[in-house]
């Protein structure tokens, strides 16, 4: 299975493809800074998040949704202030889960992915 990573910083973007087995996962990762918005999609899932900064703190807030009846769930995983956090699982099809995390800094790397349950 091919894994797609989408990297973006201050409006410039690049797409990097990396091959290999990923234990049934498919996803897209993005590194974002203050004021950026993302709306990634992968097969079976979509998400939206905003990254905002204030007083030396960075917040990522958004949602993740399961879009396909395929036996998979969707989640968003982010690295916030050096800690990896994950949203609640969105499944079955049509389920949407919201998330919000805050930490020190001015950037966050986040990833939308699906996985078999």
What tags apply to this protein structure?
single chain, 5-stranded antiparallel beta sheet, disordered N terminus, 117 residues, 4-stranded antiparallel beta sheet, 0% helix, elongated, mainly beta
Explain this structure to me?
- This protein has about 120 residues and is mainly beta.
- The chain is built from no helices and eleven strands.
- It has strands spanning about 5-10, 10-20, 25-35, 35-40, 40, 45-55, 55-65, 70-80, 85, 95-105, 105-115.
- A hairpin with a 2-residue loop joins strand 8 (about 70-80) and strand 9.
- The radius of gyration is 14 Å and the shape is elongated.
Let me know the average pLDDT.
82
The total of beta strands comes to 11
Instruction: Give the proportion of residues in helices.
Output: under 10%
Strand content: over 45%
| Rg (CA only) | 14 Å
Which structural class best describes the helix and strand composition?
A: mainly beta
First-last Cα distance: 17 Å
The geometry reads as elongated
Give the biggest sheet.
Answer: 5 strands, antiparallel
Topology:
Blueprint (H helix, E strand, L loop, with lengths): L2 E7 L2 E7 L7 E8 L3 E2 L2 E2 L2 E10 L2 E10 L5 E9 L2 E4 L9 E9 L2 E10 L1
Antiparallel strand pairs: 1-2, 3-11, 4-6, 5-6, 6-7, 7-10, 8-9, 8-11
Please give a quick description of this structure.
This protein is mostly beta strands and 117 residues long.
């Amino acid at each position: 299975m091919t894994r797609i990573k989408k990297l973006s910083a201050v409006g410039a973007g690049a797409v990097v493809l990396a091959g290999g087995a990923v234990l049934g996962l498919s996803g897209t990762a993005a590194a974002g800074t203050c004021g950026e918005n993302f709306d990634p999609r992968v097969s079976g899932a979509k998400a939206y998040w905003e990254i905002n900064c204030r007083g030396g703190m960075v917040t990522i807030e958004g949602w993740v949704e399961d879009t396909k009846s395929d036996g998979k769930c969707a989640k968003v995983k982010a690295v916030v202030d050096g800690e990896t956090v994950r949203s609640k699982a969105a499944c079955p099809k049509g389920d949407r889960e919201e998330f919000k995390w805050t930490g020190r800094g001015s950037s966050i790397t986040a990833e939308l992915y699906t996985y078999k349950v």
